[in-house]
Design brief:
Layout (H helix, E strand, L loop, with lengths): L2 H13 L2 H8 L3 H15 L4 E4 L2 E4 L1 H26 L6 E7 L1 H18 L3 E7 L2 H9 L5 E4 L8 E16 L11 E2 L1 H6 L2 E3 L5 H12 L6 E4 L3 H9 L5 E4 L13 E6 L5 E9 L6 H19 L6 E3 L1 H5 L6
Parallel strand pairs: 3-4, 3-5, 7-11, 8-9
Antiparallel strand pairs: 1-2, 5-12, 6-10, 6-11, 6-12, 6-13
Length: 322
């Protein structure tokens, strides 16, 4: 399968017949039919239903059509960006990131874009995911990393990473014996806990699992400011349950923290990148999205995003050449 075959297929679907498509793209109909046959043979399923009135996509063909449109736009924009060169890409791009995500990738993203695309002005909005979701829906952000699947018809979504939630204590905390490397969820719940408020997505994830196991949290404070929450943990006021990226907030060294796995609960948080539809992204937003995806790949595979596991699809797709 190549991009030419996908272009032909998209034109056939949009034209409604091979004859009309052949006229639009200036290729003989037998040659176009041959390319379509090769595509169907490679995919292994029928993509079009043929009749005397023309052709319509099958269910599989309909799915391929929409994905092919997306890929073609990406390729076309990548070629345009490559022709322009980094110095010609300019404009402001707004991206929404939760505090833990800022801790994991924020500085690296700013540094990378300042070096490679100095004329792109990056507007980073740090907020809770619920607020970022609202801003995205209102069109105030070009893109955002959020933690749940949303029905946003005007936006594209890509799975990025899964983060494991862990118990975090100050390195010198006496709340848990030093020999322990993990805790059950029941043991974690008995610790004096400092967590976000109940409206926070991460807190809801924790609440769901504790309710499933019929456990109660021993809350000593609810704090939505991640920097204050982690400072309170570092001062020894309690423990918290967070992704490991939270240990990058306000710490002078990784040795400030002690991290314990939760042995009997699959507590993870999935990260999704939401962007405006590709046809609505500016060239500057396209390069920010592509550079962000490549940065996430690099940080995860190098171990610099602690506790994160990249989605296989993210690792499989290579970034477009620019």
């Amino acid at each position: 399968m190549d991009i030419r075959q996908l272009r032909y297929f998209v034109q056939i679907v949009e034209s409604g017949s091979l004859l009309k498509a052949s006229r639009q793209i200036f290729i003989a109909q037998p040659a176009l039919s041959q390319q379509l046959a090769k595509l169907e043979a490679e995919v292994g399923v029928s993509l079009l239903t043929r009749s005397a009135r023309g052709v319509v996509p099958t269910e599989n063909g309909h799915a391929l059509y929409h994905h092919a449109k997306f890929l073609i736009r990406q390729v076309d924009q990548s070629v345009l960006i490559a022709r322009q060169g980094p110095s010609a890409i300019a404009g402001m791009v707004s991206i929404g990131l939760a505090p833990t995500t800022v801790a994991a990738i924020g500085l690296e993203l700013v540094r990378h874009l300042r070096t490679k695309y100095p004329s792109v002005v990056l507007n980073v909005v740090e907020s809770l995911s619920g607020h970022l979701e609202q801003m995205l829906e209102l069109g105030r952000l070009d893109m955002a990393i959020l933690f749940k699947q949303l029905e946003l018809p005007r936006h594209a979504a890509e799975r990025l990473v899964d983060e494991t939630l862990v118990v975090v204590l100050a390195a010198d905390s006496t709340l848990v014996p030093t020999r322990r490397r993990s805790l059950s969820l029941a043991e974690a719940c008995r610790l004096p806990l400092i967590l976000p408020t109940g409206s926070h997505g991460l807190r809801r994830r924790i609440d769901i699992e504790t309710e499933r196991q019929n456990l109660r949290l021993n809350l000593v404070a609810e704090v939505d400011s991640l920097s204050l929450l982690m400072a309170s943990v570092r001062e020894g006021f309690g423990a918290t349950i967070q992704p490991m990226s939270a240990t990058l907030v306000g710490a002078r060294s990784p040795r400030d923290w002690r991290v314990l796995e939760i042995s009997n609960a699959n507590l993870t948080r999935r990260n999704y990148l939401y962007t405006l539809g590709t046809d609505r992204l500016s060239p500057a937003a396209v390069v920010v999205r592509d550079e962000l995806l490549q940065l996430v790949r690099t940080l995860v595979t190098s171990g610099r995003w602690p506790g994160a596991r990249a989605d296989p699809a993210l690792l499989a797709v290579r970034p477009p050449a620019t």
